[in-house]
Amino acid sequence: MRVFRCRLCGDPYIGNSPPTHCPFCGAPVEFMVPAEEWEEENIGVEIGEISRKNLEEALELELTNAGFYRSAMEKTKNEYFKGMFKALSKVESEHASIISKLLRIKKPEIPDIPAHDDDLENVKESFERESRAIKFYTKSANEAIEERVKEVFTTLVNIESTHLLLDEETKKLFR
Ligand SMILES: [Fe+2]
Ligand SMILES: [Fe+2]
Questions:
Q1: What angle do CA 109, 92, 116 make, to 5 degrees?
Q2: 115: CA distance to ligand 2 center in Å?
């Protein structure tokens, strides 16, 4: 048994080998490093004005998406969707934690964002929310002059793209 830690969110994982994706923030396996090699990278980053504005907007996106998924999880009567929306809510909430660390602020509360009664409507809204995030994070990564901020936004684009794939697979399962 070993301990691995995620280079994006910092959370630890115990196992024989690293998971394909961080169970907390969804980062790909390359981000899972042996705990003895891990170093804090989100605290104490010098951040310029453009990236600060982009991180503040990204925080708002993550918080509202986490709130939306939490409502969708509470509404559904289907255990598949309960699991899916719960996982998405936790991952987006973790993204909000990462961004709060970079901004050196206390992580705000997750707001209540109403979801639809129908699960597939929520999957459709998920697709729109993730697409919006991907577009904004792509732009933010390009604008970032700080190496770490660029890396964080690029990895968030990667992770939110896996959520789009999940939405597609889910639509196929329940068609
Ligand atoms: Fe992570
Ligand atoms: Fe996210």
A1: 85
A2: 17
The string of pLDDT tens digits covering residues 87-140 is: 999 999 999 999 999 999 999 999 999 999 999 999 999 999 999 999 999 999
What CATH architecture is 49-173?
Up-down Bundle (1.20)
> Which CATH class name applies to 2-37?
mainly beta
CA gap 136, 120 in Å, rounded: 24
The alpha carbon of 11 and the centre of ligand 1 are apart by a number of angstroms equal to 6
User: Which distant-in-sequence residues (6+ apart) come within 8 Å of 141 by Cβ?
Assistant: 150, 153, 154, 157
Residue 163 contacts residue 130 (beta carbons within 8 Å): yes
Give the number of whichever ligand sits closest to the CA of residue 25: 1
d(CA 74, CA 164): 21
CA of 114 from ligand 1 middle (Å) equals 27
Domain boundaries, the chain: 2-37, 49-173
Q: What distance in Å separates the CA atoms of residue 26 and residue 12, rounded to the nearest whole number? A: 13
- The model's pLDDT over 14-36, given as tens digits with 9 standing for 90+, comes to 999 999 999 999 999 999 999 99
